[in-house]
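Deliverable D5.2: sample structural annotation.
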Amino acid sequence: GLAESEILEALGQAGKPLPRATWSPLYLAMADSLISRAGLLSFAHDFLRQAARAAYLPSEAHQSQAHRRLADYFARQPASPRRTDELPWQLAAAGAWQPLYELLATPAFFSDAWEINSSEVKTYWVQIEAGSPLRLLDAYRPALERPEAETDMAYLTRLGHLLRASGHLDEAL
């Protein structure tokens, strides 16, 4: 789901959100088909989501393009738990392995994502390695080769947990 403000901004053009005059009639027509969970709008029934996908995103290429557009939107947002949760999910859904790899290799983002949901971080790495030649150990090579240069010990601890969970026991030590 997306917040109404996220929908308006993502559908807007030239850095301006979609005008409310355009959004309101559409929203009112769909109101009975939508549900709000924690402020995020989504389809009230799975069959509606499937029908919308079949009508507007009929191929994997269309779906990937939509996820990439949402990823681009979230990439432009300031750091927040919402961005940290949504951006890697959209990149993974788009199969955008290189940008996801680079994002997770960023110490600050990795730490934030690990704190929100370490299981998802592990899942993203499994997806990256299954879908591309990119490897987890390469992403964190600077910290592995020179851990004494890292000033954020909490980051190294989180990284150690990821490495251990991924079966890289020597590197975790």
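Annotation notes: Residues 107-131 form the longest helix (25 residues). The chain is about 70% helix and 5% strand.
The annotation will be released with the project's public dataset once the embargo ends.
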